[in-house]
Amino acid sequence: VLGNLGVSDRAMHLFALAIDDGRPRWAHTPTRGLGHDALAVYDERVYLIDRADVAEAVRAGRRGQTPVDESVIDVLDVHTGKTVAQIGRGCGHVGLRIGKGVLLATDLAGMTAYDARTGKSLWSVSTKQAMHHCSAYLRAPVIAGDWVYDEPSAYSLRTGKMKNLPGRGQPWRWGGFRGCGTVSGAENMLFYRSATGNPGLLDVAGADGNRNFQGLRPGCFISIIAAGGLVLMPEASSGCGCPFNFQTTMALMPAAPKAPCGERA
Fold first, then answer.
1. For the chain, how big is the Rg over CA atoms in Å?
2. Among 108, 143, 149, 141, which residue's Cα sits nearest to residue 127?
3. pLDDT for 178-223, tens place per residue?
4. Which among 7, 225, 211, 35 is positioned nearest to 139, based on CA atoms?
5. How many angstroms separate the CA atoms of 87 and 76, rounded?
6. Long-range contacts of 174-179 (CB under 8 A, 24+ apart)
7. Given phi > 0 = left and psi -120 to 50 = alpha, else beta, which region is 196?
């Protein structure tokens, strides 16, 4: 079990506890600091971005100084906490995602994919993304199946090739219909807070577009979760001043498609 200790914007220590008895196994102190969105685990390895305080870099820019990017992605052994490799030196990224052996490092200007085992850079894309006003401001691409969904496009996880509409040769695009909060997903659907504040669902195959589930409000971070064949949304709007009818947990399950009028199911 991994945990971290620090202040609101970053952690200063990373530690591991044994699952069987809860005792500490190891602790790791990054040289500069660890962003709370800059941690990933895959195949008995822990990946983290060791970087300076982002706010301090912004302040340096305001003073007319050029901040030195000494950030690096540290790779630790999950059992011992020892550093086994470093990749992406001076990468400048603030977030990590991982899936199918591909490590995705992101920031507000784009993202870079690395082979998680070798550290080799696979592909990179530079696309600035407009952020919403709430606290979930970091870019958070969704890895689902063999694709990375990063508004407004989708990319092959291994090659970075942009996803096209079937048979049309035109880029598959999404977005422009959601509000603040962070997108989550499954292999065939994306989940988000819609522009009206309700839970939104998007069929990534484009069969029926995006739909809203009225009367509820997702939380400001990742609060719609696909697990075990269900879509789960724990209540996350209590105490919010937004005018929504129901403060309750939601669970959706797959349903058989409706037969056209006049035909039997």
1. 20
2. 108
3. 777 788 999 889 998 888 888 888 988 765 677 888 888 888 878 8
4. 35
5. 12
6. 174/149, 174/202, 174/204, 174/210, 175/151, 176/152, 177/210, 178/151, 179/132
7. alpha
Strands (E), 139-216: 142-144, 147-150, 153-156, 184-185, 189-193, 199-203, 210-212
Is residue 94 within 8 A of residue 106, CB to CB? The reply is yes
Alpha carbons 45 and 42: distance in angstroms, whole number: 5
What tokens were used for 64? 């007319």
Query: What is the three-state SS of 6-57?
Result: ECCCEEEEEEEECCCCCCEEEEECCCCCEEEEEEEEECCEEEEEECCCHHHH
CA–CA separation, 215 vs 29, rounded Å?
45
Q: pTM for the full model?
A: 0.81
DSSP letter assigned to residue 58: H
Q: What is the rounded CA–CA span in Å between residue 71 and residue 92?
A: 6
